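Supplementary Text 2. Reproducibility record for the structural model of the 119-residue chain.

All settings were left at their defaults, and a single model was retained for analysis rather than an ensemble. We include the record here because the model underlies the residue-level annotations in Supplementary Table 4.
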Amino acid sequence: MTSGRGDRAAPPAPEGHWEVRFADAAAAKGWESLTRQARENTYRAWLTMRTAPRPTTETPRHHRLKGSLAHGSHRGQTCEQWQIEVTGSGRVWYLLDTARTTCWITFAGTGHPRATDRS
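Retained model, structure tokens:
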């Protein structure tokens, strides 16, 4: 995604922090919707990804995804996939790219992701 006039400028990650980037345009669009619905919680999720994307103790609101969703691929790299519950139904999913010290946001949205629904 190319930045343009009027877009926010994200600060570069300082030493010891992770970059937070969008894996695709859909994730960026979902992030914008999430920020409109829950600005403060979305900011806290961003800070968490930036400073502690792999918590030592998982919680119901921040945990690694299970089963076929436990891993994802970005730029040929297989990565762990994690979830932060931003609101009751709003979620952020991201891949932990340890080689690039980057969290790739693969999903962000105000509704519960369909991929976790069981048939």
